[in-house]
Design goal:
Blueprint lengths: L2 H50 L3 H14 L10 H12 L12 H43 L9 H27 L3 H12 L15 H4 L1 H30 L1 H17 L2 E5 L2 E5 L2 H4 L4 E4 L14 E2 L7 E4 L8 H7 L6 E4 L3 E2 L5 E2 L3 E5 L4 E3 L1
Antiparallel strand pairs: 1-2, 3-5, 3-6, 4-5, 6-9, 7-8, 9-10
């Protein structure tokens, strides 16, 4: 089985195992708290219904009104600033869900806008990530040079450390700002920044949703948008180093296998004048282990090197593959003999992976002194 297939199967097994582990952990951490909250909310609902004599239908209407009015605390969601914020969450695939289109035309445009905008955003952030990594490599090189390091070139480990530090500083700085503007705890702010920059976008915590912020705090709106765009560029730089390396491994292996297959087929044996040459790899040379010369008329020569043997008259003369050197005149005369009409590889060898290398056939033309595959 190819290692690309093994890697793919391993990734599938690891992913599903990771999902099962995550489900078990979340179940242990959150299920009891969910039950307690559900009981508390049900008790409050019963108290309100009994105290104010509200029917179940009226209570559902009140509940719906409260839930639908939540986004309007930020101001008008579909004016330019709010629409720009929404477009940013669509293009970056964050998708908080704090505001959604209610008209058919708005939903149609959202789908068309996302179909074009998401690939555009991915390409843009990937390109920015590459530039960030390039700038990081220049900075690392300059620092190493100033300290007279032997290896001044930035390695992948150096770049990973740089972008990891930059990502941590971005999240830490953004969390401090959101903690001040939104009155969140610092931990909740860190959680919001991480969920945003990884484009998970649960929507349980969304910035710019209080005190009419979209209309009254333009500087805060600008900061939030810049934070999202800059932070995603930094995350893209990290993904460029960490994730894409593994994503392209299968493609690189496939290209390498194709190149090896092409190289294995590029075998050229040429008999030109008195020179025999071979253009092949070490694996391919085993195809030339023995070459049979059918019924040649060998001259009686005791002085020339014995490059030909005759172990079996049914096979003919044998020339080993190692004899790819200039032949003396008597040997060329033998090969040009009228009886010598063809030689071919007749013994099959096995390659490194246990497969059979099929025999090659060569047409020998005595009048021209050539052998062609």
């Amino acid at each position: 089985m190819k290692k690309q297939n093994v890697r793919t199967i391993s990734l599938i097994v690891c992913t599903f195992t990771y999902l099962l582990i995550g489900a078990a952990v979340f179940d242990a951490l959150e299920s009891e708290t969910e039950k307690k909250r559900w009981k508390a909310l049900s008790a409050i609902e019963n108290v309100l219904i009994s105290r104010y004599n509200i029917s179940a239908e009226d209570f559902k209407v009140i509940e719906t009104v409260i839930m639908k009015s939540e986004p309007h605390k930020a101001g008008q969601q579909w004016k330019f600033s709010g629409a720009f914020y929404y477009a940013t969450t669509v293009l970056t695939t964050i998708g908080y869900g704090h505001s959604t289109p209610s008209t058919v035309s708005g939903k149609i445009f959202t789908m068309c806008y996302a179909a074009i905008g998401i690939p555009l955003g991915l390409v843009m952030f990937q390109s920015i990530g590459e530039r960030v990594n390039r700038l990081s490599s220049v900075i690392v090189h300059a620092v190493k040079t100033s300290f007279n390091c032997k290896k001044a070139i930035a390695s992948e480990v150096d770049l990973i450390l740089v972008v990891t530090t930059l990502s941590s500083l971005t999240i830490a700085g953004g969390a401090a700002a959101f903690s001040k503007f939104e009155n969140w705890s610092y931990f909740d702010s860190v959680y919001y920044c991480f969920i945003t920059l990884t484009t998970i976008g649960f929507g349980d915590m969304v910035a710019l949703q209080k005190d009419n912020a979209l209309n009254q705090k333009p500087e805060y709106v600008a900061f939030a948008l810049i934070f999202i765009l800059f932070g995603l560029a930094v995350v893209a730089a990290s993904l460029n180093l960490l994730v894409l390396r593994f994503v392209t491994m299968n493609t690189e292996d496939e290209k390498r296998d194709e190149a090896q297959a092409i190289q294995a087929l590029q075998i050229a044996v040429k008999l030109d004048g008195d020179i025999i040459t071979g253009n092949s790899s070490d694996t391919d040379r085993r195809c030339y282990e023995r070459i049979s010369v059918s019924g040649p008329s060998r001259p009686n020569c005791g002085t020339c090197p014995r490059k030909f043997d005759q172990p079996d008259t049914s096979i003919g003369y044998i020339m080993d593959a190692s004899y790819r050197y200039p032949l003396v005149d008597c040997e060329m005369a033998e090969l040009r003999s009228p009886n010598t009409v063809r030689y071919n590889v007749y013994e099959m060898e096995t390659d490194d992976e246990g497969g059979l290398i099929p025999p090659l056939r060569y047409d020998f033309q005595p009048s021209r002194g050539r052998a062609s595959v």
